[in-house]
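Thread: quick sanity check before group meeting

JM: Hey all, I'm pulling together slides for Thursday and realized we never actually wrote out the predicted structure for the chain we discussed last week. Dropping the sequence here so it's in one place. If anyone has concerns about the input, flag it before I start.
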Amino acid sequence: KFVFVPTDDNQTYAVNLQGTGNGTFTLRDQNIDNGQSGQTAVFINIPVTTSGSGQVNLGTGGGGTTLSFDATGGGNTQTILPSAVLSAEQSNDVTPPVITIISPTAKDYLRSESFVVNVTSADADSGVFSFEMLLDGKIATSGELVEPFFQKLGSHSLVATSTDFMLNVATSSVNFRIIATPESTISDIERAYSLG
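JM (edit): ok, ran it. Output follows.
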């Protein structure tokens, strides 16, 4: 939802907030002058419950937007700073981050092999806000050593998701297989024996 409020005469505004569900919310406050986008304050993934309440103060004393919020309604009001304050150029970002999956690659890995997860995310415009990788549905990190010996034979996948500060989202994935050969099976048996 969008709200447009004039500040031509240095008016100040307070917007009251009331939680209507459990989860998170995102707020963007963007200055628009003569039809041109200006600086944007972005508050991303603020926790909220049905008891949550707070206030957004717009245009206070020529300063930036402030957010005072009690996420649970328990009387613990906190001042929340923006996740980012973006320039006019950054505020026009409509391009999602670029995700590069270097490893694993789309190939067959023997159970006797190992590989290091190597995935990067970059955003030249507003910057990367969040970056997450899931290996077979479980959180993975770049630099993590993966040993197929401890994985099931068959198909596997790595999915990477990245979001920038203007909430453009990119997703990239790679599928690979873990296989066994007679030689790798002998190596697996020897390794299992050495591990006890």
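AS: nice. Residues 182-195 form the longest helix (14 residues). Helices lie at 88-91, 182-195.
JM: adding both to the slides.
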